[in-house]
């Protein structure tokens, strides 16, 4: 019985260490992204200083976002579209309405054998190439 408790405790300690390492990694990523520098005072107090010169962001866009911007002009009612982000990501459906003024698109998906209409942002859909 003690061996089981000892093993469970060891597994819990390993899980806690992995969690702490993950949290540290997220903090460093956030600090790098926000250009923050952390300084430790003599009193043990951590202070953060925002870098005065912002870092340059990459000019390369993700393929799906770039394709969405390029193909939005070719979207016409009745065309097959693929959702690239959001709740319905990777779903394929038929474009029913496109309101370029508001940036909204109504797409029909076949779910459980019945067509369901969903209103999405036009930037979240791209023309289906298949």
Describe the model.
With 130 residues, the protein is an alpha+beta fold. It folds into two domains: 2-50, no CATH class; 63-127, SH3 type barrels (Roll). The chain contains two helices and seven strands; from the N terminus they run αββαβββββ. Strand 3 (80-83) and strand 4 form a beta hairpin. The protein is elongated and about 65 Å long. The termini are far apart. This is KOW domain-containing protein. One of its GO terms (biological process) is transcription antitermination.
Number of helices: 2
Which segments are poorly predicted (pLDDT under 50) over 5 or more consecutive residues?
47-52, 63-72
Could you say what the CATH architecture of the largest domain is? Roll
SS class: alpha+beta
Number of beta strands: 7
Main-sheet strand order equals 6-5-4-3-7
Radius of gyration (CA) equals 24 Å
Level-1 CATH class name of the largest domain: Mainly Beta
Biggest sheet, open or closed, and with what strands and sense? Answer: 5 strands, antiparallel
Global geometry: elongated
What is the CA-CA span between the terminal residues? Answer: 59 Å
Kindly state the percentage of residues in helix. Answer: 25-40%
How would you state the average pLDDT, rounded? 75
CATH-defined topology of the largest domain: SH3 type barrels
In percent, how much strand structure appears in the residues? 25-35%
How many separate domains make up the residues? Answer: 2
Reading the helices and strands in chain order gives HEEHEEEEE
Protein name: KOW domain-containing protein
Keywords: Transcription, Transcription antitermination, Transcription regulation
Region (Disordered): 49-69
InterPro entries: NusG-like, Rib_uL2_dom2, Translation_prot_SH3-like_sf
């Amino acid at each position: 019985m003690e061996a089981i408790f000892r093993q469970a405790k060891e597994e819990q300690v390993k899980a806690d260490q992995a969690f702490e390492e993950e949290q540290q990694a997220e903090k460093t990523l956030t600090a790098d992204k926000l250009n923050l520098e952390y300084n430790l005072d003599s009193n043990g107090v951590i202070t953060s200083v925002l870098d005065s010169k912002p870092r340059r962001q990459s000019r390369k866009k993700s393929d799906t976002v770039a394709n969405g911007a390029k193909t939005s002009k070719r979207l016409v009612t009745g065309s097959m579209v693929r959702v690239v982000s959001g709740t319905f990501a990777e779903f394929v459906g038929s474009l029913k309405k496109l309101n370029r003024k508001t940036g909204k698109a109504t797409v029909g998906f076949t779910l459980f054998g019945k067509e369901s209409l969903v209103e999405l942002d036009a930037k979240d859909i791209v023309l289906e190439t298949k």
